[in-house]
Amino acid sequence: MTKALYYEKKFILDSKLLEVRKIDTSYVLILEESIFYPNSGGQLADRGFIDGREIVNVEVENGIIYHFILEKDYQYFKGKEEQLVRLEVDQEARISHSIYHTAQHLISSLVYEDYEANTLSFHMGEEYATIDFDHGDILVESLRLIEKKLWDLIGTGAPITTKTYKTLQDLAGVDLRKQPKFDKNIRLVTIEGYAASPCCGTHLADIRDIRLIKIFKTEKIKKKLRVYYLAGDDAFKDYQKKAEVTNKIANFYTTDPEVLYDKIILENQKFKDLVKKNNLYENKIIATEVKLFLEQKEPVLIWEFKEKNHNPKYLEKVGNLILNQYQEQSKGKIFLLVLNSENKIITISNNEKIKIGDLVRQNVDVFNGKGGGNQLKAQAFFKKNQDMFDFLDSLKVMIQSQI
After folding, report:
1. Longest dimension (CA), the chain
2. How many whole angstroms separate alpha carbon 361 and alpha carbon 358?
């Protein structure tokens, strides 16, 4: 058993190294005493150093705390069993973890009180934390009211206390928000004015020290509601960053941040109108180009697309126009549409003798390409431009031999 001292809020400690062990591909230290909080209860493990060597993870099992080290440090510790080593916990990270965990208790308490929603799980990540509630019908508008209430409570402040009860019987008369999972040594965390909750994590002394909570996303998962939030410095930095970005966008549109959304909607509609007009002009140009192209008498027609506005979508428009609107004019002909910038070929057959899909599928691999389609229309893609043109020359010869 490791004597756990992380609740005492010590950040430096000299402790006896009992064992250096290799577990599968991991290397761990087992100490007589530890101030490192392990991964537990949804809270991240502490970061820090032992004798100046980085601790990459901390886990607990059957009362033993395992401190994970890098492989390169294994030999250093291997000769130090039964000696004192210095533990140094990253105080800033610990405080951040405590802020997030305390924020979870406050959010869960408010949601339970106002909506009778129970907390199913809590997960702390490196960038944000999440809480899952069993009530998936809480409206986003309601969460905004909760967020405002959170800010008011943080501003007022309320002390947080912890107490460990030896047995379940000792909990008689205690107002609980959540039932404990264990029947002995039950540690309860209580925010003044709210029901207590079993918890093994680290917390602040007062909710005022959270400083700020920001609920930035919600997600409904079946009947559950997942709430994403930031707390402390992370929440403040997020507000700063978003305010900075908002002001930059507002300056770009030469408008005030308060009316920025309406301005973006207006500009977006203008853009859509321009795209619509551009498509109309483009369709007229394509129709004219196709009509002129079809005036050629050759049975196999190759059309190369090289302009900046020539893209796969442009090529598809040309192909569809030939197939759907110019069937009579294109009767008996084969069309090979080549998009240089994409190394792509669209083939169209309006000749009953030519099964263009079969020709493409059966020969494209020879030229390091991929493709397929049906007997009226097929396409082929190539990594190299030269492979595409070699395939094009070969395909034209095969077609001419079958006409």
Report:
1. 98
2. 5
Topology of the domain comprising 3-89: Elongation Factor Tu (Ef-tu); domain 3 (2.40.30)
Is the domain spanning 294-402 CATH 3.30.565.10? The answer is no
| 9 confidence band (pLDDT: 50, 70, 90) | confident
Q: What is the pLDDT of residues 296-330, one digit of tens each?
A: 888 999 999 988 889 999 999 999 999 888 888 88
What confidence score (pLDDT) does residue 137 get?
74
Question: 367: how many CB neighbours lie within 10 A of its CB?
Answer: 20
The pLDDT confidence band at residue 156, using thresholds 50, 70 and 90, is very high
Cα distances from 194 to residues 189, 197, 286, in angstroms, run 10, 9, 70
Phi-psi sector, 230: left (phi>0), alpha (psi -120 to 50), beta: beta
Average pLDDT, the chain: 93
Nearest partner of 133 among 193, 177, 194, 183, judged by Cα: 177
Superfamily of domain 95-242: Threonyl-trna Synthetase; Chain A, domain 2 (3.30.980.10)
Burial of 231 (0-12, 13-18, 19+ CB in 10 A): buried
DSSP-derived secondary structure letter, 295: T
Can you give the residue ranges of every domain in the chain?
A: 3-89, 95-242, 294-402
The answer, yes or no, to whether residue 37 has pLDDT greater than 90, is: yes
